[in-house]
Amino acid sequence: MNMIRPEAMKAIKRMRELIGALAMALVGLWLFGVGGLFFKALGIGVVAGAGAVAFVGLQRMRFRTLDDGPGLVRVDEGQIAYYGPDQGGFVALSEVQEITLIFDAAGRRYWRLSQARMASVTIPVNAHGADDLYDVFVSLPGARTGAFLTALDRKAHEGEITLWRRAPRLALT
Questions:
Q1: For residues 72 and 127, is the Cβ–Cβ distance under 8 A?
Q2: How many domains are contained in the chain?
Q3: Same structural domain for residues 111 and 84?
Q4: Which CATH number does the domain housing residue 160 bear?
Q5: Strands of 56-153, DSSP E
Q6: Which residues, in sequence order, are CB contacts of 111 under 8 Å at separation 6+?
């Protein structure tokens, strides 16, 4: 028997970084209140760290959606795998050329990951495990975190948007 309702557990999982930042801030305030110059400085440092964790947590929270979409996303050692009911595929991070947010006829959102020599992989934004893509996307060279977060607020009638494109490699000849 579960003591926490499933809806409440989903909300807790969605906000886990913010809850951790709150706990860090409370520990920092307690350290500050202990007294002494060392503990006051340590408390201020812990509270500042909690602020940084909260900032990242807010970004990740915006990126997380309800995991009610079709399929499963796995990120493992530089490779993104999508296992869908009708389609799926694998993308190596080193081969990703472009990331685009697209919409289907019903207005559902998808990430389209285009590769150089392979077929593109289309992943529903709300697929189970798709929130792991946040870390992958922001680790790409030149990727802007804000672009990915604001794209999630985009409506279907506004059309698709390319969020990241790999810079062309210059020839050494």
A1: yes
A2: 2
A3: yes
A4: 2.30.29
A5: 69-76, 79-83, 88-92, 96-103, 109-115, 121-124, 127-128
A6: 99, 100, 101, 102, 122, 123, 125, 130, 133
Q: What is the pLDDT of residues 64-100, one digit of tens each?
A: 776 678 899 999 988 999 999 888 899 999 899 999 9
CA–CA gap between residue 150 and residue 143 (Å, rounded): 13
Structure tokens at 86: 């009708």
Q: How confident is the model over 108-142, as pLDDT tens digits?
A: 899 999 998 889 999 999 898 888 898 899 889 98
- With beta carbons less than 8 A apart as the criterion, state whether 84 and 69 touch: no
Supply 49's token pair.
Answer: 């760290």
Rounded CA-CA distance 97/103 in Å is: 19
Residues near 160 by Cβ (< 8 Å), separated by ≥ 6? 100, 101, 102, 103, 112
Domain-located, residue 173: no
Judge if 83 and 19 occupy the same domain. no
Look up residue 48 and give its amino acid. A
Q: Are residues 75 and 154 in the same domain?
A: yes
For 20, the 3-state DSSP assignment is: helix
18-67 confidence digits (pLDDT tens):
999 999 999 999 999 998 999 999 999 999 999 999 998 888 887 777 66
Length of the chain: 173
Evaluate whether residue 46 is within a structural domain.
Answer: yes
